[in-house]
Amino acid sequence: MKTNGEGEGQFASMEWRKRRANGKECIGSIKCNGPMTNNNLVKQQQQQLLPNPSLIRRARFIRRRTTNVYCETLKQLKEQDAALISQILLIGLKPRSEASEFECSCSGSSSSSVIPSVEFACPSLSSNFLLFPPTLFYPDFMKGTIQRREEREAFQVILTNEKGDRKFAFCFKFPRPQIHRGKRGAMHSADSGIDTLRSIAPFSVLVFVSHYPQEALFHGLAANFVEMLQNDKSKMTQMSLDLLRLRFTSGGGTKYANHWSRSNVSTVVEKVGVENVALIFLCLLSERRVIVTGANVRDVSTTVQTFVRLLAPLEWPHTLIPIVPDSQTELCFNPTPYICGILRYNLSKINELICPERFPKDELFNNDIALIDVDRGVIVPSISRCSDRRIGLKAILQHSSSMGFPHSAVCEIVSALKSCLPVRDPEKADHKIEKKVMIWYAKLFGHYRKFGQNILSARNRKLFAHAHPCAETRHFLKWFVENGILQSFIFSQFRDDGITNTNPFINSCALLHRFHKILKKYAPPVDGNGNRRRTKSVIWRVFTR
User: Fold this and answer.
1) Which of 52, 133, 247, 310 is found 20 to 30 A from 15 (Cα to Cα)?
2) Strand partners, 115
3) What is the reported pTM?
């Protein structure tokens, strides 16, 4: 009785002998004319089929240095306080001469005459003021003090502490009339009651800090808060205390939900371009450094969040900065993976980073920068056409191949995103994009559930990659299973038996329930022992193309 491996090896040997008899030696998709030595054949076969060893080495290195810490913090996440809002801030601009030492240090080496300052805090920051640098919430303060009277602008800032605990700061920028010094213009701290006599700039930023990324809800609360602030400032303290009493309740209790909700993803995909979005999506999956730039805070921040949401149900476990403050552009020089937004006029401060010829060579992190302009498309790597900002499919295939992605998978994700456009109903289009991405995931690594909690062991990682029916995808999984994004996702699935939990709130608004239903239909056929089912694999390859 011959094993499956012996049968496949014998079949491959017979095929090779037939091709050699015809004078055409071929291995995989490598065609050669003329005689070849066995060493050359083996060498070309490895180059064509085996993943680049540096990809596996790079994935392991990044995971051990970064996401291992992230996974350890997930173990400590218990039932969180049900408070919808944990902190309310009002940020404005003040003269540098009146700023505190901490506020001046946050502005860095900027020469701006005015810098961001916390005008109001509820509850009082006291010893926690270091956790809320005001420049994070007023990132474009160096534009100048005289700004045009623009529309209300909303954006999000991500707050991550040294333990990896992630919070969301919803920022609502609005114009307000000049308030002069005097009793009527005094602002009161929520707890201390001390008058703050200062001249307030025409623009201020209202900040709600929360564990939950509920944008639509916060937008409504912010609009009401600003309306109250413009009509009667004396009620600001009481309204802040009322907002802090709000609780996020559910029939099954409350739990930390780190997944993003859908919000106009399709609109951003249509604006930025399918090819551009697909390339950045693949860069994030391969844990590259991604920089998003544009003309204003709202566009940049929204685009960054769209790319992160596009990964769902996977999460981005590395550095996430929707908008880098004008005074802290050095954050872009972080050598580990990140995605961050930066305003276009600050690009000159990081030119040595985005110019490959000036960037120092590094075995693991060389050429891993991707820079995309919201309006102009991908700038780095320079693969877009000169005539327009679109990227050809051939250019995407070439670049994604260097990152280790199979051509068939790249073509499939590009086609899937294109099928969701044009956008007629944003909500339905968002739902469709989310489903397409989850189907794409299911076809690539949907069989992970067959391996149980021991999938992350060294032996099972190899078996997991080998169990996929497609040879091209098997070689892709050899390095992708070492990836921190996939491992942190799998770890969270089996944490506290969460994979069997039927509470839709605990499982992040039923997103994982939808994914598990998709897995039943599209996951590669694998038996209970983690072995490939050969007959069903043939049928699966036919019907999932």
Assistant:
1) 52
2) 94
3) 0.73
